[in-house]
Amino acid sequence: SDLGDEGIAVIGTDPEHHKANAWKVVRTIKCQGGGSLFIKTHPKSTNLYVDTALNPDTKISQSVAVFDINNLDKGFEVLDIAGMAGLGEGPKRVVQPEFNKAGDEVWFSVWSGSKEESAIVVLDDKTRKLKTVIKDKRLITPTGKFNVNNTMHDVY
Fold this sequence. Notes:
Layout: E1 7-11, E2 25-30, E3 39-40, E4 47-51, H1 58-61, E5 64-68, E6 76-79, H2 81-85, E7 93-99, E8 105-111, E9 119-124, E10 129-135, H3 148-152
Antiparallel strand pairs: 1-2, 3-4, 4-5, 5-6, 7-8, 8-9, 9-10
């Protein structure tokens, strides 16, 4: 994904079986806007989540785009993650989709201002529906919620 535009660059990463495409951009996919920081999938998921936390349009920065990796030509579904958090008025930024170890949940940080409530939103990956919202007054612009197992074993 790219901070500056709405494109997602698909790069060939298999020099052994696809030498002609190795380490080259083989396709660009249109997303909902620029300002993306994180893009995430999991080996057990058919979804690809793209945040746009730095997009100046609040509707875009408060949501994520989700692609079906088996049908990228279908386009993306927009999920209003900030709306699911139920945090009330004020600007929000949704950032960093992160899977649990099993690959059946995806967690999003919802940033608010330093004096407003923030949250972590947990979705069911298969249905793309809300499972739970984690709120706490100590949760201020939550970041770095990396799954230790996935990080240690390079599960992306």
